[in-house]
Design brief:
Elements (H helix, E strand, L loop, with lengths): L3 E6 L3 H13 L3 E7 L7 H4 L3 E2 L11 H17 L7 E2 L2 E5 L2 H16 L5 E3 L2 H7 L10 E5 L3 E2 L2 H14 L3 E4 L3 E7 L2 E7 L4 E3 L2 E4 L5 H4 L10 E12 L9 E3 L3 E6 L2 E6 L12 E2 L14 H14 L6 E13 L6 E3 L6 E5 L5 H18 L4 H5 L19
Parallel strand pairs: 1-2, 1-13, 2-9, 5-15, 13-21
Antiparallel strand pairs: 3-8, 4-8, 5-7, 6-7, 10-11, 11-12, 14-17, 14-18, 14-19, 15-16, 16-17, 20-21
Helix pairs in contact: 1-6, 1-9, 3-9
Bound molecules: flavin-adenine dinucleotide.
Length: about 400
Amino acid sequence: MSKKRVGIVGGGIIGTSTAYFLSQHYKDAEVLLFEKNTLGSGTTAKSAGTHCLIDDSLPHEFWSVRLFGFEFYMDMEKREPGSAGFEKTGTLLIAPYPEYEMYGLQAVDLATAAGYTAEYWKDPEKIRQILPDLTLDGVLGAAYSPDDGFVDPTMISNTLGRWARENGADIMIGTEVTDIIVENNKVTGVETSNKGHFDLDVLVDATGPWTPFFGKLAGLDLPIIHTKAEVFILEPKEALGYPFPVLKYPRFYARKDKENVFICKAHLTMDLDNPEHAGVWNPDDLPMTGGTDPYFWDFLTEELLKHYPRLLDTSLANDWVGYRAEPKDFMPILGESPVDGYVLAIGAGGNGVIEGPTIGRDIARYVMTGEKAWFVEKLPLSRFENENLEQHHKVTW
Ligand SMILES: Cc1cc2nc3c(=O)[nH]c(=O)nc-3n(C[C@H](O)[C@H](O)[C@H](O)COP(=O)(O)OP(=O)(O)OC[C@H]3O[C@@H](n4cnc5c(N)ncnc54)[C@H](O)[C@@H]3O)c2cc1C
């Protein structure tokens, strides 16, 4: 029997997860991955990589996705220590209002039911034992898990790319897909910048924020908007003197970055109608570092003034901008498109790291068997035809 030739375009965390699951579980798949730069060098390289069961970025409705991602990366670390770059710091989610407190309480419930350690504290002294310098006026409580932390998404992409290669996948770096051949509304192949033409049975679009441009090569107008993810790395003038967990507030989050602190505005606070937050820009124009806007710096310094003034006694060690690929409901777009053989693994927005293993597993299954698991069934492109699009991210905000 001839193999199904699957070409994945994009070697970020979504493309490499898909290549890994295809090559690991489907011996009748011939897997080709095209990455125009290096693996994990796009949005994946700009990510915070927070790896948390206590987290507000993906609503509890999608708990199975969060848990599968979490356990997949822990299993990577067991198989090959360091292969996911996991650093266990714990998470502290601070609840300033009742809906958020309920969200935190449920997060603790879900994490403990899955066998992890998590607690909800109303006592400010408990919270201060983790972060002594927080201002806790008006705070209702905090959810804490020592099991959480952050991973290195570029390391994960490279490990999964290597494991896929060991399984027989052809992982091409420095190879751009420059054209998509569509005949009778069916993808039949691609042209590349340096390796010529490839015949394909299926193309998986995993181009992250490049999607609005890439889809046009097949005549598709894919509904992806960019939101700016602006990161500031703060270097304390004096060492903080305590381990720094992943810190979550509704409007911003922070984590350690070696001896420094990484801060970023929470992605679910982004307003797709606000040109300071969102638009469609060319990701090739983004520098690796720098390029941040005063708007985000002002927003974050105001938050720190309210909640964590000690972090203003710092200097700026680094900053950068990433573009999250956000559909209008902040959830990915998975599965079929109007062009046969053009499969979507796009729009992972601010959750691509935690969603990567589920998307990779479920897209591999869809491509090879036609079966749609829950995440694929729930998040088709066709949902945008519905005027009453479900807004999952409004659950807590
Ligand atoms: C500041 C920031 C913080 C974040 N924090 C988190 C977090 O804590 N947790 C979480 O889960 N998510 C987080 N995210 C989101 C997460 O990083 C993204 O959702 C994820 O990295 C997207 O991965 P991707 O593979 O879809 O896209 P990308 O990593 O952008 O990969 C797309 C790849 O496609 C390649 N490509 C494009 N066009 C072509 C072509 N024509 N031919 C060949 N190759 C092509 C590009 O070079 C690129 O490598 C964060 C994002 C940012 C910016």
